Amino acid sequence: MTATAHFTGDANPYGGGDPYADYRAADLPFTHLVDLADRRLGAGVIAANDEFFAERENLLKPEPAHFDPERFGHKGKIMDGWETRRRRGAGAFEPHPTDEDHDWALIRLGAPGIVRGLVVDTAHFRGNYPQAVSVEAVSLPGSPSPEELLDPGVKWTTLVPRTAVGGHAANGFAVDTERRFTHLRLNQHPDGGIARLRVYGEVAPDPAWLAALGTFDVVALENGGRVEDASDRFYSPATNTIQPGRSRKMDDGWETRRRRDRGNDWIHYHLVEEADIRAVEIDTAYLKGNAAGWARLTARDAETGGWTEFLPRTRLQPDTNHRFVLPDAVRADQVRIDIFPDGGISRLRLFGTLTERGAARLTARHTELGA
């Protein structure tokens, strides 16, 4: 584990104006990856030992933490994060907590995967953030209860050792543990508040589940698909196009800035593994005056190396889900969508089945990751 963009110490008291004006953050090399703790993937904070001041569920809200200096409740200041009460020692002559005292929260990842980096965000916790944090991870089958996760026989892997953090800051940690995990335990030492937790990595699906499905969306995030690159991420991330479910508003899709040249925008995807694609959906939901005008799909198989067009340049309608049944299955492990000239789409679905070779490689990788 390597600490990145390391901050320590208090932030200044809030002095009015934009509360993010003095927020401490830095570029992190892993934030382009999928957030495995995204609520849209099914992540949840399933337990915490204490949430006296602010609920544990706030940790996984997708939007940045909000700060209202006038908002107080009967327990005190209401914060948009997870905040525990102040720990105390054994008595009047030992008023401080021990070095072992700490608070914890259990997080179920939305999709099992390899963790490449974490952000423990203490936004707006200026003098009430934890002195240090640590993060552990485990991989368990099924849907274990908090009691099962806390069983003394469960062996946790340390992703972030106990490390001092700063208040009102995006505390980033790179992780180099090549294992598949399903749950995390976030510890704050000894107490305090954390606004958000982001867990960036790569989805590592269960081959047995995909085999049982047979035909499925081979580019979906939850099934192990990913965005390799995109021409433009000005308004929203390209990863939105392979999130679960239909888009619910305009910024839940992918929208590019307005082009003033003669080029076009595109996204390059990696499928979960080599697959035979048989049907396609291109959805422009909620993109009404800014949907892409036309779209084209090309596919590449790593074994052959070349790119082949399988959906020619096709007119798209605003706020519409377009469905295409392919005349012949298209074998690929990578797909690129080109939109013309700019604009956006909300979702791309590629329905198919893994090839025998793709299924074998996925199973081998699953074993390598200790699943």
Gyration radius (Cα, Å) is 23 Å
Estimated helix fraction: under 10%
Q: Number of DSSP helices?
A: 3
Sheet bearing the most strands, described?
Answer: 9 strands, antiparallel
Distance between the termini: 21 Å
Shape: globular
The number of strands is: 22
User: Which structural class do the helices and strands define?
Assistant: mainly beta
Mean residue pLDDT: 95
Percentage beta strand: 35-45%
**SSE topology string:** EEEEEEEEHEEEEEHEEEEEEEEEH
State the low-pLDDT regions, or none. none
What keywords describe this structure?
mainly beta, seven-stranded antiparallel β-sheet, nine-stranded antiparallel β-sheet, 371 residues
Describe it:
This protein is mainly beta and 371 residues long. Helix content is 6%, strand content 40%. The protein contains three helices and 22 strands. The protein starts with a strand and ends with a helix.
